[in-house]
Amino acid sequence: MKTTPKPQIIDKFGREHTYLRISLTDRCNLRCFYCMPEDGIELTDKSGIMTLEEIVSIAKTFRSLGVDTIRLTGGEPLIRKNAEWLIRELADLGVTLKLTTNGIILDKYFDLFKEIGLKRINISLDTLEKSKSVFITKRDYFDRIMKNIHTAIDQDFDIKLNIVLIKGVNDMEINDFVDLTRNKNIGVKFIEFMPFKGNEWDWDKGVSKEEILNIVRSKFGEYKKLKDPKHSTSTNFKVPDFEGSFGIVSTITNPFCAGCNRIRLTADGKMKNCLFATAETDLLTPYRNGESISDTILNSIKEKKFSRDGMDVEMKKEHYEQNRSMTSIGG
Ligand code: SAM
Ligand code: SF4
User: Could you tell me if residue 6 is inside a domain?
Assistant: First the structure.
């Protein structure tokens, strides 16, 4: 294990940023309605997207500034051409590598992940019903995704299922998801519906942490609160005697910004110091001009607001409509 340089990406609240989420592409093979606007997104043309070599090099700079964990995301990260080469190079940096994927082509990567030690995989699965999956994702890949999830669990990957809850769509499946943790050591992570450009967010469609816990309690009785890992974005629980656990990402009703250690790098090389940041810092242009980007990164983090890019109390439409859609940020 290579030693991690001292954390240097520190904001004015003293938060050390050691976790980088890299979007490998803004393209996706699904069209989840809460993520992708109805008319799709304007894709960046190829020349504006970081090449694989540029991603590695920019990631090395982040590493030198104390980043110890990199999560690959997108769009759908696994559809990026030659992702295998990139993943090997990033693993070589000595960071903990993690992945968020929709799972469609995960089977092509199991051997590679075992070889390089990538264990932590979050797979998005909003429903356990095939017809509903087609409704949510506008594509028919449910059987393939389920097969890959089962294989990943059998092969001992550390699996979390990401579920974005939308009232009237999948909230009635909350307890079915929790039931999956009865005999399997997996995590199910319920995510409160968040607002981004063009996703027609309306909190009336959202399901709060409190509602989720009440629903779980109504079926399984009193659940147990688990100790959350440092910097965790979810509050974690367990039904006593169940093997796995469940967590809730309560960005809307109970934001967890105080412990935030995350930075995002979009596929077109922009650094976002917060998921909701409307201001972005271009790293790719100075990098291509041969300039050092370390100071640019350190200055960008100093601009970070304490919570949700300044939307401390409520989500404001005039603010989040200036952000990108989730698929182009890299959630
Ligand atoms: N394509 C991959 C996937 O679906 O896992 C990675 C990218 S996706 C943007 C990352 C995560 O963001 C997914 O778990 C997805 O469910 C979540 N997400 C997308 N839009 C969201 C929204 N409006 N609110 C909350 N979570 C959202
Ligand atoms: Fe694609 Fe993931 Fe967004 Fe679904 S949630 S449209 S799979 S990027």
Answer: no
Please indicate whether residue 162, judged by its CB atom, sits closer than 6 Å to ligand 1. yes
Residue type, 316: K
Can you tell me the distance from the alpha carbon of 27 to that of 22, in angstroms, rounded to the nearest whole number?
Answer: 14
In a domain, 53, yes or no: yes
- Spatial CA neighbour of 273 closest among 286, 260, 255, 284: 260
28 CA: nearest ligand 2 atom: 1
Give me the CATH number covering residue 93.
3.20.20.70
Residues with CB under 6 A from ligand 2: 28, 30-32, 35-36, 74-76, 102, 124, 326-327
Ligand 2 centre from 162 Cα, in Å? 11
Q: What is the DSSP letter of 228?
A: P
pLDDT, one tens digit per residue, over 176-212 is: 999 999 999 999 999 999 999 999 999 999 999 999 9
Quick one: pLDDT at residue 227?
97
Please count the structural domains in the chain: 1
User: Which residue type sits at 313?
Assistant: V
What are the C-alpha distances in Å from 92 to residues 82, 85, 262? 16, 11, 21
Full domain range(s) for residue 300: 19-329
d(CA 74, CA 101) in angstroms, rounded, equals 8
| Centroid of ligand 2 to alpha carbon of 263 (angstroms) | 20
Q: Decide: 160 and 187 in contact? Cβ < 8 Å.
A: yes
For residue 191, tell me if it sits in a domain: yes
Q: Is residue 29 part of a domain?
A: yes
Examine the pLDDT at 121 and tell me if it is beyond 70: yes
The finding on whether 191 has its CB within 6 A of some atom of ligand 1 is yes
